[in-house]
Write a structure and sequence with these properties.
Elements lengths: L28 H26 L3 E6 L5 E6 L2 H67 L7 H8 L1
């Protein structure tokens, strides 16, 4: 009978609770998977503690070296997803409001410009009408005998 100690390294199939160093990338696929599994649970624990201490909600999603998606959320995924969706709707509404405000400002500037143009045209028309009225009055004064003119008409005729 051979004398083989039961705690021999040759009989062990796993690395057990060994500390995993962070100084280099794992070359073997199996080593990367083991490291990922150990670090993932520690990461979840730390984030859960941060959530409790700081009263924050979070979602973490990790793609493992094997391509499997792992996710963890606190307090729960649905609640956070609803908050995110509502926030996106709020942002979308804010963007829409901003676009509407810009459009309203542009329309207001355009309408103000048109109003100024119309006012200028109206002023020119009033001047034309005033000139025509004055010319008509002058013509009627010219056609009126001097003895029938009042003082204001005579002054206008003189000018």
């Amino acid at each position: 009978m051979e004398n083989i100690p039961s705690n021999s390294r040759e009989n062990k199939r796993s690395k057990g609770g060994q500390r995993i160093l962070m100084d280099r990338r794992r070359e073997r696929e199996e080593d990367r998977q083991v490291t990922f599994s150990k670090r993932r649970s520690g990461l979840y624990k730390k984030i859960s503690e941060l959530s409790l201490v700081c009263a924050i909600d979070f979602i973490i999603m990790i793609l493992s070296p094997s391509g499997k998606l792992h996710s963890f959320a606190s307090p729960n995924m649905e609640l956070i997803a609803m908050k995110l969706l509502n926030n996106k709707k709020l942002e979308s509404n804010m963007e829409t409001n901003s676009l509407m405000e810009t459009s309203v400002r542009e329309n207001l500037a355009r309408l103000t410009s048109q109003l100024i143009e119309v006012k200028n045209l109206l002023d020119k028309e009033k001047e034309q009408i005033d000139k025509m009225v004055k010319a008509r009055k002058t013509k009627s004064i010219i056609d009126t005998p001097v003895s029938d003119l009042n003082e204001g008409d005579a002054k206008m005729l003189e000018d």
